[in-house]
Amino acid sequence: MKRALIFGATGGIGQAIAARLAESGWSMYLHCNSNWEEASDLARTLAEKHPLQDFMPIKLNFLAGDDQLKNFASSLLPVNAVVFAQGITNYDFLGSQSSQVIDQIIKVNLENPIKLTKLLESQLLKQEHSRIVYLGSVYGGQGSAMEAVYSATKGGISRFAQAYAREVAASRFTVNVVAPGAVNTAMNAMFSPETLKELAEEIPAGHLAKPKEIAYWVDCLLNPESDYLTGQTIYVSGGWLE
After folding, report:
1. N or C: which end of the chain has fewer CB within 10 A?
2. NCBIfam families given for it (predicted)?
3. Which of 29, 150, 164, 235 is labelled catalytic?
4. pLDDT per residue over 60-92, tens digit each?
5. What percent of the chain has pLDDT over 70?
């Protein structure tokens, strides 16, 4: 049985990834940070549609310390793939952000994903084909004003993936980043409809991405036939920015 661990499975993109991978025959751990009821509902819904697969909600605070990360990783059944779809931002000038907010963005988007990668490496290396996909951002390629720390973490995860992929490539263990542009999710709900309309007009494709348009590329990267693609950041942006 092929099993994936989807971090951030209750988010807009995370739910779309879970639905797409379920259609492709994956069993899954569905991670949430705090939305346990939502993760449980997602697991039940997917189990009803795909009764021959397993869907298990699982909880971890991404601000957790090292001991909690180790306990989490050691509690898992073997997985073939890990998708890091969690992430936070704070839309503000750097000079107005507290040190606590800066630390949280770095920990959730970069530091703990790297630590969890280290903890999960040994079991992934045992698989015939193993995969890690990080959700990056177009802002990892071109930094965004008002999201300087967020941009730094997304650029950092792309460089980490590029370097780490070279360490494990000989084991058919691929490491890639799917970097969306503007996506129609709750993360962009802070902006007015007028602002989002103006943004859509800047995108050559003419619209914000639907979450399922991002999930498609994650599914492709998890396919066993994608062994030769590793260390890459794939920008799914409708032609916008990177």
Report:
1. N
2. EF_P_mod_YmfI
3. 150
4. 999 999 999 999 999 999 999 999 999 999 999
5. 98
